[in-house]
C-alpha cells in the first residue's frame, strides 16, 4: 500500500510527490527525455508549432466572446464589433489571422525537414502518419475558420469546397459516384446558409480543436520509442548515451535531455520566430486578410477571382487545370500522396537527401514543383497558365509514382 | 459460446453497437436540411416584363437563377422554355464545375456566352458548356408554366420532358 506521511504539509513538495509522483512524471516527460545533440534549428519547428497553436487558442477565445454565428450579424460582429468596438479586438483578430497563415508555413518547413532527413522511416512511420493527420486537421480547421467572417470569400470558398464532396459527374459510370444529396446534407441547405455557418462554427471552435489536441498528444507519444532523428541519420544508442550523460560524461554522450538543455535552444529559436511573428501582426497583417472578404457574403454575386489562401494553392492547382473527374482524382491523390511516403520510399537509408543520390534530385524537384503550383494557383486560368498548371500537376503525380523506382536501388551511403 | 463471460461480453457489445448505430442515425438526421429550409423551396417568377437579350437574375433556394428572353437572332435551342411564342432561357446560374456564377456576355446576340471567372469554364447561348472544366450544361430548375409565370420548384410536363430528353439533370 502506498505510504502517505501524515505530517507532510498540504501542497508541499513532499505531499504532492506522494499523491502525484510529480518528480517521476517530470523525469519521464522532460528531464530524461533524450534528444540527439546532432541537430540544427530546423528541429525547433515542432515546439514553434505547439506555441503557435497555443496562440491561436488564446486569441480565438477572445474572438469567440464577441463573434456571432448568424448570417445576418456575423460579418458586422467581426468587422464592426471586434475590429472597432472591443478594446484590442483588432489585436486578437490580427494575431489569429496571421497565426493561421504562418502556422502553415511552419508546418511545411517541419514537413520538408522530415522528408529531407528521411525522418519518416526506420520506426518513425507513425510519427510521419500522425503528423500528416495533423496537417489534414489543421487544413479543416483553417477552412472552417475562414467561413466565419461570412464575407464574399467565405461564402464562395464554402460553395466551391463543399461542391467537391458531390463526387464524380453524373455521366461517370452511370452516376454511381455522384452524390449531390451529400453536398446538401453537408451544408444543411441548398447553398451555404445559416445551418452551414452554425455547423462550421461548431467545428471550428470545438470539435476540430479537440481532435487536434488529441492528435498532438498522439504525435508526441509516437516520438517516444523511435526518438527524434538527427542531421546524419545516425542510429543513436539512446540507452547507452543516456547512461554516459547521467554519469557526467556529457561530452562523450550523443544525447542531451529535453529539459533544460534542448528546450533552452528551442526557446531561443522561438524568440527569433516571435519577433518575426509579431512584426507581421503589427505591421504586415494585411497579407493574411484578403480584401475580397471585406465584402459581405452575397449569393447572387461571385467575386471576379476565387482563390484559396496561399497554403492551399498547390493542391488547388492540381484540381483546377484538368477536366472535372480527372481533376477530382488528381486532387484526391494530392491529399493522400504524402501519407504514402514511408511506403513509397523503398530505400532503407536514413540520411539527409544530399547523400542519397537520385532522391536528392527528387526532393528538390518536388520542392520546386510545389512552389510552381503555388504560384500558378494564384494566377487566373487562361491559355498560358492552364497548360502550365497541367504540366506542374502532372509532374507532382509522376514524382510520387517514380519514387519507389528511384529509391529501390539506392546504395547504402 | 465457450463460457458465460464471453456471452456477457457479446451481449454488452451487441447492445452498445445497437445504441451506437442509433446515435449515428440521429446525428445524420440532425445534419439534414431543416423542414423550413425544404419548404421554402418554391418561387414564382413573372416573365411578362422580361426584355430581349437582357439578363434577369432571380433567387430560388438561395441559388441565383438566370432568366434570358432570347432575341430572334439567337440560335434556337431545345433547352428554352417557350411561352406564347417568346423564348426564355431559364437556368440555375451556378457553374456545374464547382458552383461559381458565370458572367453573361450578350454583346453579340448571335453569339451570347456565359463565362465563369473561377476556373475558366464557358457556356453558349443555350447554357451548354463549350470550354474548360464544366462537366454538363447549366442546370434548368424544376418549373411549371402558369400563364406567363413560372413556378420554380414544381415539376411541370415541359420540365419532365426536358429531363426525359436528357437536356438537364435533376437538382
Description:
The complex is a heterodimer of chains A (413) and B (171). Chain A is mostly helical and 413 residues long. Chain A has three domains: 1-31, no CATH class; 37-306, Cytochrome Bc1 Complex, Chain C; 316-413, no CATH class. Chain A is built from 16 helices and two strands. Chain A has helices spanning 13-20, 22-31, 45-64, 74-85, 89-116, 125-147, 152-163, 180-187, 194-221, 238-246, 258-283, 313-319, 324-337, 341-344, 358-378, 385-408; strands spanning 34-36, 255-257. Chain A has a two-stranded antiparallel sheet. The longest helix of chain A is centred in the first third of the chain and has 28 residues, at 89-116. Chain A is globular. Chain B is α+β, with helices and mostly antiparallel strands and 171 residues long. Chain B has two domains: 4-32; 39-164, Rieske Iron-sulfur Protein (3-layer Sandwich). Chain B has three helices and eleven strands, in the order ααβββββββββββα. Chain B has helices at residues 4-30, 35-39, 157-164; strands at residues 43-46, 55-60, 63-69, 81-83, 86-92, 103-105, 113-115, 122-123, 129-131, 143-146, 149-152. Chain B has a four-stranded antiparallel β-sheet with strand order 2-3-5-4, with no helix packed on it. In chain B, strands 6-7-8-9 form a four-stranded antiparallel β-sheet, with no helix packed on it. In chain B, strands 1-11-10 form a three-stranded antiparallel β-sheet. Chain B starts with a helix and ends in a 7-residue tail after the last helix. The interface between A and B is medium-sized, with 38 and 31 residues.
Provide the fold topology.
The complex is a heterodimer of chains A (413) and B (171).
Chain A: H1 13-20, H2 22-31, E1 34-36, H3 45-64, H4 74-85, H5 89-116, H6 125-147, H7 152-163, H8 180-187, H9 194-221, H10 238-246, E2 255-257, H11 258-283, H12 313-319, H13 324-337, H14 341-344, H15 358-378, H16 385-408
Helix pairs in contact in A: 1-2, 3-5, 3-11, 4-5, 5-6, 5-11, 6-9, 12-13, 12-15, 13-16, 15-16
Chain B: H1 4-30, H2 35-39, E1 43-46, E2 55-60, E3 63-69, E4 81-83, E5 86-92, E6 103-105, E7 113-115, E8 122-123, E9 129-131, E10 143-146, E11 149-152, H3 157-164
Antiparallel strand pairs in B: 1-11, 2-3, 3-5, 4-5, 6-7, 7-8, 8-9, 10-11
Amino acid at each position: 500500500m502506498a505510504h502517505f506521511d501524515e505530517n507532510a504539509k498540504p501542497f508541499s513538495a513532499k505531499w504532492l510527490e506522494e499523491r502525484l509522483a510529480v518528480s517521476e512524471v517530470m523525469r519521464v516527460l522532460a528531464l530524461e527525455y533524450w534528444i540527439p545533440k546532432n541537430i540544427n534549428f530546423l528541429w525547433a519547428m515542432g515546439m514553434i508549432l505547439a506555441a503557435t497553436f497555443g496562440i491561436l487558442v488564446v486569441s480565438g477565445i477572445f474572438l469567440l466572446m464577441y463573434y456571432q454565428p448568424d448570417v445576418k450579424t456575423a460579418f458586422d460582429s467581426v468587422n464592426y464589433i471586434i475590429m472597432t468596438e472591443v478594446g484590442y479586438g483588432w489585436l486578437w483578430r490580427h494575431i489569429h489571422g496571421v497565426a493561421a497563415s504562418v502556422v502553415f508555413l511552419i508546418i511545411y518547413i517541419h514537413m520538408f525537414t522530415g522528408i529531407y532527413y528521411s525522418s519518416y522511416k526506420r520506426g518513425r512511420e507513425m510519427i510521419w502518419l500522425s503528423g500528416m493527420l495533423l496537417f489534414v486537421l489543421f487544413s479543416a480547421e483553417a477552412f472552417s475558420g475562414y467561413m466565419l467572417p461570412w464575407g464574399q470569400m467565405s461564402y464562395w470558398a464554402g460553395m466551391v469546397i463543399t461542391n467537391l464532396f458531390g463526387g464524380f459527374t453524373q455521366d461517370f459510370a452511370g452516376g454511381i459516384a455522384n452524390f449531390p444529396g451529400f453536398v446538401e446534407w453537408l451544408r444543411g441547405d441548398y447553398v451555404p446558409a445559416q445551418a452551414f455557418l452554425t455547423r462550421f462554427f461548431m467545428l471550428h471552435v470545438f470539435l476540430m480543436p479537440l481532435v487536434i489536441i488529441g492528435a498532438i498528444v498522439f504525435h508526441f507519444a509516437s516520438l517516444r520509442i523511435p526518438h527524434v532523428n538527427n542531421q546524419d541519420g545516425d542510429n543513436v544508442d539512446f540507452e547507452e548515451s543516456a547512461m554516459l550523460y547521467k554519469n557526467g560524461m556529457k561530452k562523450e554522450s550523443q544525447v542531451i535531455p529535453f529539459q533544460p538543455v534542448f528546450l533552452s535552444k528551442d526557446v531561443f529559436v522561438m524568440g527569433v520566430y516571435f519577433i518575426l511573428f509579431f512584426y507581421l501582426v503589427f505591421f504586415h497583417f494585411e497579407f493574411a486578410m484578403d480584401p475580397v472578404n471585406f465584402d459581405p457574403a452575397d449569393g447572387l454575386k461571385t467575386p471576379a477571382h476565387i482563390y484559396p489562401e496561399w497554403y492551399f494553392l498547390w493542391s488547388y492547382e492540381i484540381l483546377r487545370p484538368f477536366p472535372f473527374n480527372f481533376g477530382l482524382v488528381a486532387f484526391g491523390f494530392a491529399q493522400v500522396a504524402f501519407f504514402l511516403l514511408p511506403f513509397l520510399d523503398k530505400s532503407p537509408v536514413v540520411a539527409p537527401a544530399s547523400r542519397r543520390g537520385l532522391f536528392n534530385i527528387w526532393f528538390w524537384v518536388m520542392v520546386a514543383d510545389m512552389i510552381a503550383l503555388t504560384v500558378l494557383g494564384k494566377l487566373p486560368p487562361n491559355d498560358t497558365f492552364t497548360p502550365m498548371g497541367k504540366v506542374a500537376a502532372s509532374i507532382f503525380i509522376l514524382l510520387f509514382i517514380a519514387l519507389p523506382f528511384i529509391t529501390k536501388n539506392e546504395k547504402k551511403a | 459460446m465457450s463460457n458465460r463471460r464471453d456471452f456477457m461480453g457479446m451481449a454488452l457489445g451487441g447492445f452498445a453497437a445497437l445504441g451506437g448505430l442509433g446515435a449515428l442515425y440521429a446525428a445524420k438526421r440532425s445534419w439534414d436540411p431543416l423542414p423550413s429550409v425544404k419548404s421554402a423551396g418554391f418561387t414564382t417568377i413573372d416573365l411578362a416584363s422580361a426584355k430581349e437579350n437582357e439578363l434577369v437574375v432571380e433567387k430560388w433556394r438561395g441559388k441565383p437563377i438566370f432568366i434570358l428572353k432570347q432575341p430572334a437572332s439567337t440560335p434556337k435551342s431545345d433547352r428554352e422554355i417557350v411561352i406564347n411564342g417568346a423564348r426564355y432561357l431559364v437556368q440555375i446560374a451556378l457553374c456545374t464545375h464547382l458552383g461559381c456564377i458565370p458572367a453573361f456576355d450578350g454583346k453579340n446576340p448571335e453569339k451570347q456566352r456565359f463565362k465563369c471567372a473561377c476556373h475558366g469554364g464557358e457556356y453558349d447561348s443555350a447554357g451548354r458548356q463549350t470550354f474548360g472544366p464544366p462537366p454538363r450544361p447549366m442546370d434548368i430548375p424544376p418549373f411549371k408554366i402558369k400563364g406567363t409565370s413560372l413556378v420554380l420548384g414544381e415539376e411541370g410536363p415541359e420540365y419532365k420532358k426536358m429531363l426525359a430528353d436528357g437536356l438537364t439533370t435533376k437538382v
